[in-house]
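Suppose a colleague, Dr. K., hands you the sequence of a protein chain of 335 amino acids and asks what its three-dimensional shape might be. Before reaching for any lab equipment, you can write down a predicted structure in token form. Begin with the sequence itself:
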Amino acid sequence: MTYSLRTGRTRIALALAVAILFVVPSGLFAEEPRIRAAYSAMSGSMAWVWAAKEGGYFEKHKLNVDLIYVGGTAQLFQSMLAGEIGFGVGGGPSILYANAQRRSIVAVAGTMNRMVMKIMGSPQIKSAADLRGKRIAVTRYGTSTDFSARLFLKSWGLAPDKDTAILQMGSVPSVLAALQNRATEAGALSPPAHLQAEKAGFVELMDLSKGDIYYPYTYVTATPGFLEQNRAVVAPFLAACIEGIHRFKTDKPFAKKLTAKYLRIQDDKVLEDTHQLFAELFERAPYVKREGLASLVQILAEKEPKIESIKTDSLVDDRFVRELETSGFIKNLYR
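The predicted structure, expressed as tokens, is then:
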């Protein structure tokens, strides 16, 4: 068989190309890190993470994020502890319950540190006597809605579970549906669902946002193991979330369109009110306020004394938010 110089050169070139594939570090061809993140409520309080996803900020920070919905923070934490979810967006007392059971979950950012829950009820409910022997709906036990309902019942002199039954409905839309279907006389609703309830003829029994009360309403969480093994993706993930907060605050048309899509709301007044409320409440620099966790410890310890021994500092790892703030990243967004 004849062998030409041209053929020889071609074969050498091919051989070199194959060799390069083996000697070039594989990281140069690696895909963007793929992360599973989940949020725990169909509520306006989650709009910033939807904004991070829809605005393309995860991709901007070289992350491939699958964002899914897992109803209830307690359920979300179970998925995280099972290794099915990397970052979780939840809120309320579940982080205390989890750590009381020695299931370590830490908050790496606090995107909302105020309680905005509303207790809505049928017009016939005018006093505690009208709720005695009746029902109040929440999403799941151990969530912000459950905590709010129990706080409300106590403020009315009613014993939760004893004087008034607490029903688990699974999600905020399901609580609203339970009210509308007369399956419950009252329900704990986060904005903008309370506005929909109001439009349907239900009345506000209590506004938990009144008063200067700190509460860990929405936070970003992870397990210490996940943080240790994936440290390189934490700051980029939070940077994308912070850009989502900024976009929601500063781009009203985008924010309203986002809220309409995820919450299936078309009423423009509800969308306007929702944007105005959360644009004020979302934190620019999302630190978890330890005062909110401390107040939760005090209240929950009445029922579960072992919660009192939890050190709130052990629940928070805010070094990544601090890095982003000290670098000027957050300040530059709002220039």
